[in-house]
Amino acid sequence: MISPLMPNYNRADLAFEHGEGAWLFDTAGRRFLDFGAGIASSSLGHGHPHLTQAIAEQAKRVMHVSNLYRVPGAEHLAQRLVEASFADSVFFCNSGAEANEGLVKALRKTMADAGQPERVRVICCDGAFHGRTLAMLAATGNPKYQAGFGPVVDGFDHVPFNNMNALRAAITPQTAGVLIEPIQGEGGIRPATMQFLRDLRATCDEFGILLGMDEIQTGMGRTGKLFAYEWAGIEPDVMSLAKGLAGGFPMGAVLAKERVAKALVPGSHGTTFGGGPLACAASNAVLDVILAPGFLDEVVTTGQYLWAGLEKLRAKYPTVFTEVRGMGLIVGLKCAVPNTAAQNAAVAEGLLTVAAGDNVLRLVPPLIVREAECDEALARLDRAAQHLMPAMLEAAK
């Protein structure tokens, strides 16, 4: 008999009752160090007093009114995001996939308004992950995710990641723009090179097409800057956000320059729940913390400390880990053993991580972790690696 919950997840047999900072406690009272952060979403960790207070106070007043009316919290949040980014205007929604859908619609509508309705195609990269809707499955381009869901939505072309020659060759008179992750998260913590991003900006300008950045996983301080595109010294035309935007509360956003934003006139796009009072209260609280002086500098410092420790682990266990990847607090360990085995071994040591593509173990802790939590995570990974040594795995068979 089928479970009341549909069987589309392979859930670990863990149920968490409460959390404190970077720690989660399950229903059996066991304590786990959370270096998965709800897949890079719990940006301030668990039970953060400022975030939980903002949510509780807003819930007492009003949770939902719809976008038939003004939402002062959304107006305030949009202004803050505009002031802290390249954007002139913001659309709020509920998730990353929805944000990317809005982004692609905005690309196409901008071109149609400019008298080029034939420009509907979007160039994406091999190894990308942009979401689970039908259109975003096509943008992702991974046959594993597309199998069984019928014809693939047309309008997306794929090129190798970090390959500018291939990307330029893919541009046609039907191309509206490019959609790219500055760091491929689900694809294996694979960063775009700074030169590739700079050349990408110049190429989009050269061909008169638009640059869209998927910063669902890299945005909101994850790399040590508020947005990852800042490291390359460029600006996109439009960008998607979600995950850490509201610290784990469901929230997505599309940030755009005026040329793109003005294409979404009344009736062209919408959402029932997006940008509601409760979500915006949470997101404003997250911004309060992340934009505080010195916070992002601490993310950079902690990320460097974690990276150094992971490099020592890689050198100590070369038959288990072969490469460290990433930036800031989005870091991956390329595994020589199955990454699912590494993930399970880490869980056995009380450490939560997330598997990613290219056989990578993903470490995306809350942004509030510091050296003490990193030391604890490294010690637990060390113990996990001991059990993952090929001789140990063979003996366990």
How would you portray this structure in words?
The protein has 397 residues and is α/β, with parallel strands linked by helices. Helix content is 39%, strand content 18%. The chain contains 14 helices and 17 strands. It has a 7-stranded mixed β-sheet, with helices on both faces. The protein has a 4-stranded mixed β-sheet with strand order 1-2-3-15. Strands 13-14-17-16 form a 4-stranded antiparallel β-sheet. Strand 16 (354-356) and strand 17 (360-363) form a beta hairpin. The radius of gyration is 21 Å and the shape is globular. It starts with 15 loop residues before the first strand and ends with a helix. The mean pLDDT is 96.
Helical content (DSSP H or I, runs of 4+): 25-40%
Total helices: the number is 14
Q: What average pLDDT do the residues reach?
A: 96
User: What percentage of the residues does DSSP assign to strands (E)?
Assistant: 15-25%
Q: What sort of overall outline do the alpha carbons produce when their principal axes are compared?
A: globular
Overall strand count: 17
Please state the oligomeric state of the protein chains shown.
single chain
Backbone structural class: alpha/beta
- Uncertain runs are none
Radius of gyration, whole Å: 21 Å
Through-space gap between termini: 32 Å
Described by strand count, sense and barrel closure, the largest sheet is: 7 strands, mixed
Strand order of the largest sheet: 4-12-11-10-7-5-6
